[in-house]
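Researcher: Going back to the complex we discussed earlier. I've cleaned up the inputs and rechecked each line, so this should be the final set. Can you rerun the prediction on the complete assembly and write out the structure?
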Amino acid sequence: MNPRELEHHLQDLFDGRLEGESFEHLQKVLRDDPAARAAYREHLHLQHALEFRTNGVDLLNVVPMDLVVERRQRRSMRNAGLAAAAVVAIGVLVMALVAARTPQPTLTFNTAPGTDISISHALTGEDALEGLVLEPGSRLKVLNGTVELEFASGVRGIVRGPADLTLQREDLLELTNGTVWFEVPKKAVGFKVNTPDLVLTDLGTEFGIISEANFLDEVHVFDGKVEVRSRHGLKKKELLKAGQARYAGPAGRWKETPVRRDHFLDELPTKEIEPAVVSTEDSSGSQLAYADDASASDLFHGLTPVTTGWYLNNGAHPKELTDGIHGAGSNQVPGDPVQGAWTTVGATAEYHLGKGAKGLGYDLTSIQSIASWNGAGFGNQAWTVEVKPVGGDYRILHTVNYHPLSSQPLDGGGATKVVLTDKSGVLASGIESIKFTASHVAGSVGNSFVWRELDVFGGPTKRTP
Amino acid sequence: MDGVDDVLQETNLVLWEKRRTFEPGSNFRAWACAIARFRVMGHRRKLARLGLQMFDDDLAEQLATECEAEPEELTDRMRALEHCLGRLPQKERALIDFRYFSDSQLEEYAAQCGRPVNSLRVSLFRIRAALKKCITNELTLSRNRP
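Model: Rerun complete. Updated structure for the full complex:
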């Protein structure tokens, strides 16, 4: 076969027009003649280059198999002899292109030492994701510890557990609960976070979200702006700027709350952070189970708090939190049917201890809280305690969510007792003020509860904390 | 190269599905080619069942091996092709574009431009031969550049 004949045969081959004896003849020549195979190589690469130039990038986009099958059925496959070429064409294409376009996961994450997580993905079987990556549909539960999120878009987040989040889209995170700090670069403006209470759209900023069961979700903006919309009631929108923090009330109205930068981490801890506060919780089906535990000798005894948002009808009053008396059962005392404090969601009680004997404030060693009523749910308790050091700002010490009575009948009654202590023996040192904020409890009317007693134990701080 | 396109698509699909099994740092080319070869062999068996002519296994393997190219060569070839295409007369460039950018048959193009199909085939033959020669020259120049 002379060079011109070889050229014709090869071109016909690549055009799918070489059949019968001509095909067999070319095959024999290729088998025997290295020069013919070199010519074949040149044709293959020209064909490859022309095809690649035409289809290059699109070839990487995987088409559904049914479409492939359909195309195959439509097309005549005259190019049986070209199967060998596929090895080369595929090999070089894959090598040159796919390797350069290895997709970056939508979200990668790292965990701090001691972090306990579970992950579930939308993709299963052979397609299941491996490693510390999330794709749309993936759910990450942080049982405890801290996780750093890194989105392909450049968004960074630090999640403090316990937390539960689902990546809905590359720019939308569903946060069921957890405390998360976010930093959003300009290129990722429009990043969204949904929580049970709110929808947040970032406008290029640094912000934090606190979402906890039975508490109203909070947004804290540290830099730039975010737009938030409440998901309940009025569903009002609010544009928050740096230095502002809000939570949406049950009716959907936005309410101010102090910005708490210290409540959020912006870096992954390098060592395990063990929760120091120990919460000991007890419950009983009897509303007077802890009647004898109320203390008349603690730091709070006799203090009158600064209060907001409490129910004051039926004899209920927050001053009863610190009177050292549990109080009788419901409707047992004529004219004073509620011998306790009756919360609303968001009700606060702020106690000023003062600076103590040495002017250094107080060491707090334990906090005891008792709730009870004859109706189920009202004996549950949910609250946050914040402490303020002498001359300092409030910080959250602990949050209690204790709802063991929720499944009892409405007239079942019951009581709960929660005691907070610290592994070190001191919950907080150098404290001059303490603030309690009530939250939602399950199983009651209006998510309120009857708070019988609040005792704080400790003494004056002796040395500078 | 109808069948090749389909195999390529299928291989891309498999590579995507199995991307997590690739160990970073190992030989991606070898990994991808192993998958591609498996797909091609499957495709060849289907063609054989359809009774279509194809190169025998030994020759196919030999051609596949001898036609392998390093990424640098492919890049150089692409660059050379672009240069050579730019030197084609407008009519010839239009014919190449139709042949490789369109899914339509050459007969359609013949009807559009008022030329017989065989004439177009002859032109394609000549253009491709010219492109091949041009690319070879470009590659030679490129390799011998000081």
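Model: Worth noting: The CA atoms of residues 220 and 245 of chain A lie 4 Å apart.
Researcher: Good, that matches what I expected from the previous run.
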